[in-house]
Specification:
The complex is a heterotrimer of chains A (310), B (220) and C (666). Chain B is mainly alpha-helical and 220 residues long. Chain B has seven helices and no strands. Chain C has 666 residues and is mainly alpha-helical. In chain C, the strands form two sheets. In chain C, strands 1-2 form a two-stranded antiparallel sheet. Chain C has a two-stranded antiparallel sheet with strand order 4-5. In chain C, strand 1 and strand 2 form a beta hairpin. Chains in contact: A-B, A-C, B-C.
C-alpha cells in the first residue's frame, strides 16, 4: 500500500519535473533545424522560476475567476496526467478515471481557460476563446472516438488495462488502430496548440489561439498556465506511447522508466521535425483537418462494430 | 502465422482506404498528385503481400506494374501536363470538404453493409479485403463526381481502378489478373493522352482554372 | 403512499383556486408559492420512499363512467415524482423572491399550482383517461402561463404555436392509447399490459407515442414550439417547463414503450437512436446561433432530450436483442441524465431569471460584467454551466460517461442497422457534448464576464435571498450527484429492474464510493476522489507558491497588446464568439451567410455586417404546412359567400352521398 502510494507520488512528481524539459527539447530541436543554437534545454525551468518570483499585474476589471483559473487549470491537468500509466501500468489511483475521464478533465481545463480569456473584456481574449472552442468542438469528439475504438479493441476504457492489452500479443495489427493513431496525432497537434493548428511562439493576432487567451496573464499565474500547457503535451505524448508503443511497460520499474524517457525524447524530436517541415494552416482550414481526424476515428469505430477482425 | 498475414493484408487494404480519404481531403493539385502516387504505392504493397500469402508469383508482376506505371509514371506525366497547361491552382470542389468526407464515410459503411453478408461463405481474408476494395472504388467515383477539374477527375478514375485491382488480387485464383491490369493501364494512358493532347475540353466542367480565378477572400 | 400523492395533487388544486382569489393581495404571492413549496417537498419525499417500496394503487370515483379513474405508484412513477417534486420545490422557492416583481400576478398565480398538479397526476396515472386528462391539464395550464406576459412582442405567437403542438401531441397520444386499448376498449394500463397486440399495431402505437411524447419533450422536428414558449413564460415557469415538463413527456414515452408494449423490435431502437442523435446535434447548433439567453437555454434543452433519447434507444435495442444487463445500464444512464438535466437546467433558468430581474434584459448582447455586480448568481450560473458541459467532477459528466459505457458495451450486435446507428450516435453524442461546452462558454462569458455593454448591465444589483437559496441548493445537488453518483444509481436500480428485468451492480459498497457500471476490469470512475485531488492539488500549489514565491498583486489597466480600448463595444459579442462555429457548422446546416458592406474610403457611413440564418426544420416542414393550411382555409372561405341555392345543393349532395354509401355497403 505504502509502496503503491509512493509510486503514484513519484509519477506525479516526475511528470511535473519533466514537462518543462520536454518543452525545452522541442524548442531546441526546432532551433537546430533552423540553424540556430537555440535556448538551452533547461531554459523553461529558468523562465518558470523567473515568472514565479514576479508580481502579478492584474487588469482593473479582472474578477475572482481570472485569479483562480490558473490554479484550477493546473490542478486539473496535473490530476489528468497522474492517471496516465507512464512507467508503471498499475498505478494505485488509475481506476479513478479512464480515458474518457482524462479527455473530460482536459476539457474542464480548456473551459476555464476560455472563460479566463473572456474575463477582461478585450477583443484578444474573445478571439482566443472563440477559436479555441471551435477547435475543441472537433478535437474533443475525435479524441472520444479514438478512445471508443481503442476501448472496443482492448475491452476496457481504463488506460492501465489498455496498456496491458496492447503490450500483450493478443492485439495483432489492426486497421482501426492505425486509423486511431493517425487521428490521435492530429488531435494531439490541435490540443497542444502546435503547428499546423496554432503557433506556440506567435504574437500576431492573426495567428493566435492559445496565446490570445493568456495575453493578460503575468507573473505566477502565467507560470502556472505555461506549466499546465507543458504538462498537457507530456500527457498526450505519454498516452500515445502507452497505447501505441507499449514496449517496456511491464518489465520492472527501471526498464520501464528508461523506456518512457526514451519514448518522450523520440516523440519530442519527431514533433520538432514535424513542426519545422510544415506551415501553419489558415484558421478556417483547421476544421477540415480536425474533421478528417473525427472521420478517421468514426471510421475506426465503425469498422470495429461491423467486423471483429478489424 | 496466418493470423498475422491476415492482419497485414487488412492493414494494407485499410491504408488504401485511408489514402482514398486523403485524396478526398486535398484541394491543391500538386498535393493530389502526390497522394495518387502514395495510393498506387500502397496498392503495390498490398498486391505484393497478396502474392506472398497466396503464393501466386504472377501477382508480383502486377505489383511492379502498379508501382512503375501508376505510382511513378502517371503522376509524373500528369504533373508535366499540369505545368504545361498552367492549371496548378486550387481544385474547385462542388460541395465543401466536410460534406464530401461525410459522404465518403457513408460510402464505406454502405460497401461494408453490402459486401460482408454477400461474401459470407468466402475465405475470411478475402471478405474484408473485397469490402474495403469496393469502398475504394466508391470513393474514387466520389472524387470524380465532386471535382470540377479534369485532372482531378482522372486522378479519381485511377484510384477507382486501384480499388478494382485490389479486389482482383484479393480474390484468390482469379485468372488473367496480370493481363487485365496491363490492359487497364494502357486504356488509362490513352484516355489521359487523348484528353490533353487533343484538348477535349467541352466534355468537362473546366480544364483551365484561369477562368475561375477569383478573389479568395472571405468566402460566403 | 399513493394517498399521500393524491393529497398533494388535491392541495395544489386547492391552491390554484386560492390563487385566483388572493392573487392581487399583498401576501398572496408569498402564500401561494410557500404552500406550493411545502407540498412539493412532501411529494419529493413520497417519491423517494416509493421507489424501493412496492406498487400501490387507488381507484378514483371521477373519470370514465364505467371504470372510474385509476392511479398507481410504482418505482418509475416514484422516480419521476422525485423529479417533479424537486423541480417544483426549487421553482417555488425561487418564485418566493422572483414572484414579487410580477406585474400581473393574477395571470400567474392561479395557473402555477394547476400546472404542478397536472405534472404530478400524469406521472401516477394508471389508465388512459386520467393520463390524457392530466396531460391536457398540464398543457393548458402552461399555455396560460406562457400568455402571462401577453403584451410583450412574440409571446402571443409563441402561445399559439405551443397550443397547436400541444394539441397535436395530445391527439397522437390519444390515437396511441386507442390502438393499445384494442377492440375490447379497455383503457386501463393493466389491461394494456396483458394484451398482446399484433406486431403492426404495436409498431404504429410506438411511433405515435414517440410523436406524441416526443413532441412534448422536444424531439427534432417536433421541437419548434419549445424555443418560442419556454422563454416567453416567467423564469420559474420556464425552469419547470424545461426541467420538469419535458421529463414528464419522457416518462410518457418510457411508460408506453417499455411498460405497456412488451418486448420491442430492434428497428424501434434504430429509430429512437437516430432521432436522439439528430436532436442532440441540431439542438446544440441552434443554441450556438442564439444570442437571447433564455432561447439559448431552451434550445439546449432540446439537445439534452436528444441525449436522453439516445440512452432510451440503446435500452430498446439491447432489450430487443435480449441483453437485459446492458439495457439496464442504458436506461439507468438515460434516467440519471433526466434527473441531472432537470437540476442544472432549472438552475440555469433561475440564473437567467435573476439576470432578467436585475437588468430587465435577456439579450446577451446587452449584458456583460455581471460577475462583479451579481457575484453569487454568477457563481451558481457557473456551476450550472460546468455541469451542463459535462465537466468532471459534476453530475453532467457521470450521466454522459454512463451513456458512453453503454455504447461500448456490445459492439457485436446482429442487426446491421444497430451496427451503424450506435457508433454514429457515439460520434453525435461526443460532438454535441463538445459543442455544448462551447455554447456555455459563450453564454457565461458574454453575459457575466467582460465589461458591461449597456447601462442596465452596469447598474445591476444582486437578487434576493430566496432566489439565491434556490440556486445554491440546486448547485449543491449538482456537485453532490457528481461526487456520489453511486447513491443515485442504486436508487434507480428498482426502476431499471421493473423496466428491463435487470439492474446495474450495487454501487454503495464499493471502495471509496467508486462507480463500476459493469465490472472493475472494464471501467470505473470515482467522482469523489477526482474532486478531492483537484481541490487538493489546487490548494497545495496555491499555498506553495504564496509561501515560497511571490504573492504580490498590482492592479493596472488591461494590457490588450498595448492598444487598450475604452469602449466596451469592442469586446466580443455573442454573435462574434459563435462566428467560427457558425462558419464551420452553420454554413452546412443553417445556410448561414455573412454579408459585409464596407463604405467607400472617405465616406463616414458605418460598415455593416449582416448575418442570415435559415431554420431548416421550419422552412422544410412547417412553412409548407402552414402555407398549405392557409391556402386551404382561403379556398374554404368561399363557403361563406354562397347563395341559398348553393347551400341547399350542399345539403342535398351530402344526403345523396350518404344514401349511396349505405347502398354500396349492403
Amino acid at each position: 500500500m505504502i509502496a503503491a502510494l509512493a509510486i503514484q507520488g513519484l509519477q506525479m512528481a516526475l511528470v511535473l519535473l519533466l514537462a518543462p524539459l520536454l518543452t525545452g527539447l522541442v524548442r531546441k530541436v526546432k532551433a537546430r533545424l533552423q540553424r540556430r543554437r537555440g535556448p538551452s534545454l533547461i531554459q523553461p525551468y529558468r523562465d518558470l522560476r523567473r515568472l514565479l518570483g514576479k508580481e502579478v499585474v492584474l487588469a482593473e476589471n479582472a474578477s475572482w475567476l481570472f485569479r483562480a483559473a490558473p490554479y484550477i487549470i493546473f490542478a486539473v491537468t496535473w490530476v489528468a496526467a497522474a492517471l496516465v500509466p507512464t512507467f508503471h501500468s498499475g498505478l494505485i489511483f488509475s481506476w479513478t478515471g479512464d480515458l474518457i475521464a482524462i479527455t473530460a478533465l482536459l476539457g474542464s481545463a480548456r473551459f476555464m481557460l476560455a472563460l479566463a480569456g473572456m474575463d477582461i473584456g478585450t477583443s484578444f481574449g474573445g478571439i482566443g476563446a472563440s477559436r479555441e472552442m471551435m477547435i475543441a468542438s472537433l478535437a474533443e469528439p475525435a479524441m472520444l472516438m479514438i478512445a471508443l475504438s481503442v476501448a472496443i479493441i482492448a475491452g476496457s476504457t481504463q488506460l492501465s488495462t489498455i496498456a496491458a492489452y496492447m503490450a500483450s500479443s493478443a492485439v495483432g495489427l489492426r486497421v482501426s488502430l492505425a486509423l486511431a493513431l493517425v487521428a490521435f496525432v492530429i488531435v494531439a497537434l490541435a490540443e497542444n496548440a502546435r503547428i499546423p493548428v496554432d503557433n506556440p511562439a506567435t504574437h500576431l493576432e492573426l495567428t493566435m489561439v492559445h496565446e490570445a487567451m493568456v495575453l493578460e496573464y503575468s507573473g505566477r499565474h502565467l507560470a502556472m498556465i505555461e506549466l499546465a500547457a507543458s504538462l498537457k503535451l507530456l500527457l498526450y505524448l505519454s498516452v500515445i506511447a502507452c497505447i501505441f508503443v507499449p514496449a517496456g511497460l511491464g518489465h520492472g520499474y527501471g526498464i520501464a522508466l528508461l523506456g518512457w524517457l526514451a519514448k518522450l525524447a523520440v516523440a519530442g524530436l519527431l514533433l520538432g521535425i514535424f513542426e519545422m517541415s510544415i506551415a501553419k494552416m489558415r484558421v478556417f482550414r483547421v476544421p477540415n483537418f480536425l474533421g478528417a481526424a473525427l472521420m478517421l476515428g468514426l471510421l475506426g469505430v465503425l469498422l470495429l462494430f461491423v467486423s471483429q477482425g478489424m | 502465422m496466418p493470423h498475422l498475414d491476415f492482419d497485414i493484408a487488412h492493414m494494407l487494404a485499410g491504408m488504401l482506404v485511408l489514402a482514398s480519404f486523403m485524396m478526398l481531403y486535398q484541394d491543391r493539385l500538386y498535393a493530389l498528385l502526390r497522394v495518387l502516387a502514395l495510393h498506387a504505392f500502397v496498392l503495390a504493397c498490398a498486391v505484393a503481400w497478396q502474392a506472398r500469402i497466396q503464393d501466386a508469383p504472377g501477382l508480383y508482376v502486377t505489383a511492379v506494374i502498379a508501382l512503375g506505371f501508376k505510382a511513378i509514371l502517371a503522376p509524373w506525366a500528369l504533373h508535366r501536363i499540369v505545368v504545361r497547361l498552367g492549371i496548378h491552382r486550387e481544385i474547385e470542389t462542388v460541395v465543401g470538404i466536410g460534406v464530401t468526407m461525410l459522404a465518403g464515410m457513408f460510402l464505406v459503411a454502405l460497401s461494408l453493409k453490402v459486401m460482408l453478408p454477400v461474401t459470407a461463405h468466402a475465405e475470411p481474408v478475402a471478405r474484408e479485403d473485397i469490402a474495403l476494395a469496393l469502398s475504394v472504388v466508391l470513393i474514387g467515383l466520389l472524387v470524380m463526381v465532386t471535382r470540377r477539374n479534369a485532372v482531378s477527375q482522372v486522378v479519381g478514375f485511377l484510384s477507382l481502378e486501384n480499388g478494382v485491382d485490389l479486389a482482383a488480387a484479393g480474390a484468390q485464383g482469379m485468372p488473367l489478373v496480370v493481363e487485365l491490369s496491363v490492359a487497364f493501364s494502357v486504356l488509362i494512358a490513352f484516355i489521359v493522352t487523348g484528353i490533353f493532347l487533343f484538348r477535349i475540353r467541352e466534355r468537362f466542367d473546366t480544364v483551365d482554372l484561369q477562368a475561375l480565378d477569383r478573389f479568395r477572400g472571405e468566402r460566403g | 403512499m399513493i394517498d399521500l400523492v393524491l393529497a398533494c395533487i388535491l392541495a395544489w388544486l386547492v391552491l390554484a383556486l386560492c390563487g385566483a382569489a388572493i392573487a392581487q393581495t399583498r401576501r398572496g404571492t408569498a402564500l401561494i408559492y410557500g404552500c406550493s413549496l411545502l407540498v412539493a417537498l412532501v411529494l419529493l419525499v413520497t417519491g423517494a420512499a416509493a421507489i424501493p417500496a412496492g406498487v400501490s394503487r387507488e381507484t378514483l370515483p371521477i373519470g370514465l363512467p364505467w371504470t372510474g379513474g385509476h392511479v398507481r405508484l410504482d418505482a418509475l412513477s416514484g422516480f419521476f415524482l422525485i423529479v417533479v417534486g424537486l423541480g417544483s420545490a426549487a421553482s417555488s422557492l425561487f418564485a418566493l423572491g422572483y414572484g414579487r416583481h410580477e406585474l400581473q400576478p393574477q395571470r400567474v398565480l392561479p395557473f402555477y399550482p394547476l400546472f404542478l398538479a397536472g405534472l404530478a397526476l400524469v406521472v401516477v396515472a394508471d389508465d388512459a383517461f386520467i393520463f390524457l386528462f392530466a396531460w391536457e391539464l398540464m398543457s393548458i395550464a402552461s399555455w396560460a402561463l406562457v400568455l402571462a406576459h401577453h403584451r410583450e412582442s412574440g409571446n402571443t405567437h409563441a402561445a399559439l404555436v405551443y397550443l397547436l403542438m400541444a394539441s397535436f401531441s395530445g391527439l397522437a397520444l390519444l390515437l396511441a392509447f386507442g390502438l393499445l386499448a384494442g377492440g375490447a376498449g379497455s383503457y386501463t394500463f393493466d389491461a394494456m399490459r396483458l394484451a398482446h397486440p399484433p406486431p403492426w399495431v404495436a409498431a404504429v402505437a410506438l411511433i405515435l407515442a414517440l410523436i406524441g411524447a416526443g413532441s412534448k419533450a422536444g424531439i427534432v422536428p417536433l421541437h419548434v414550439w419549445l424555443p418560442l414558449a419556454h422563454p416567453a413564460a416567467p423564469s420559474h415557469v420556464s425552469a419547470l417547463m424545461s426541467g420538469v415538463m419535458t421529463k414528464v413527456a419522457v416518462y410518457g414515452f418510457i411508460r408506453i414503450a417499455f411498460d405497456l408494449l412488451g418486448v420491442p423490435d430492434w428497428w424501434a431502437g434504430v429509430l429512437v437512436l437516430a432521432l436522439g442523435g439528430i436532436t442532440a446535434l441540431l439542438g446544440v447548433l441552434y443554441a450556438l446561433m442564439e444570442h437571447d439567453l433564455k432561447r439559448l437555454l431552451a434550445y439546449h434543452t432540446v439537445e439534452n432530450i436528444g441525449i436522453i433519447f439516445i440512452g432510451l434507444g440503446l435500452a430498446l435495442a439491447f432489450d430487443a436483442d435480449g441483453l437485459p444487463a446492458a439495457a439496464a445500464l442504458a436506461i439507468t444512464a438515460a434516467l440519471f441524465h433526466a434527473f441531472n438535466h432537470s437540476v442544472f437546467k432549472s438552475l440555469l433558468f433561475f440564473g437567467s431569471g435573476a439576470v432578467l430581474t436585475a437588468t430587465k434584459e435577456h439579450d446577451m448582447e446587452k449584458l456583460g460584467g455581471l460577475i462583479h455586480r451579481m457575484p453569487q448568481t454568477a457563481f451558481c450560473f457557473l456551476v450550472g454551466c460546468a455541469a451542463i458541459s459535462a465537466l468532471p467532477p459534476l453530475n453532467g459528466f457521470v450521466s454522459e460517461w454512463l451513456t458512453f459505457q453503454a455504447i461500448l458495451l456490445h459492439p457485436n450486435l446482429p442487426q446491421w442497422g444497430l451496427k451503424i446507428a450506435i457508433p454514429a450516435d457515439g460520434a453525435l453524442l461526443a460532438l454535441s457534448a463538445a459543442l455544448a461546452a462551447a455554447c456555455f462558454v459563450k453564454a457565461f462569458g458574454v453575459s457575466f464576464l467582460g465589461r458591461a455593454r449597456s447601462p442596465a448591465a452596469a447598474q445591476a444589483r444582486e437578487v434576493d435571498h430566496c432566489s439565491l437559496a434556490a440556486m445554491f441548493g440546486l448547485g449543491a445537488i449538482c456537485l453532490l450527484a457528481g461526487i456520489f453518483p453511486g447513491v443515485v444509481i442504486d436508487a434507480l436500480a428498482p426502476v431499471a429492474q421493473a423496466l428491463t428485468g435487470a439492474h446495474m451492480p450495487s454501487q454503495i459498497g464499493l471502495d471509496w464510493l467508486t462507480l463500476v457500471p459493469v465490472a472493475q476490469s472494464r471501467s470505473s470512475y470515482n467522482g469523489l476522489l477526482v474532486f478531492v485531488f483537484i481541490a487538493g492539488s489546487a490548494s497545495l500549489m496555491a499555498w506553495a507558491i504564496h509561501r515560497f514565491a511571490s504573492h504580490a498583486v498590482r492592479r493596472a489597466p488591461a494590457w490588450d497588446c498595448g492598444f487598450p480600448d475604452p469602449s466596451p463595444m469592442t469586446q466580443y459579442t455573442a454573435g462574434s464568439f459563435a462566428q467560427p462555429i457558425r462558419r464551420v457548422f452553420g454554413t452546412v446546416v443553417f445556410s448561414a451567410h455573412e454579408k459585409v458592406t464596407m463604405p467607400a474610403p472617405g465616406d463616414t457611413a458605418p460598415a455593416r455586417m449582416e448575418k442570415s440564418i435559415r431554420d431548416p426544420v421550419w422552412a422544410t416542414l412547417y412553412a409548407p404546412i402552414a402555407g398549405g393550411v392557409a391556402r386551404a382555409a382561403d379556398l374554404l372561405n368561399n363557403l361563406q359567400f354562397l347563395t341559398i341555392r348553393r347551400y341547399l345543393g350542399f345539403v342535398f349532395a351530402a344526403l345523396v352521398l350518404l344514401l349511396l354509401a349505405l347502398a354500396l355497403w349492403q
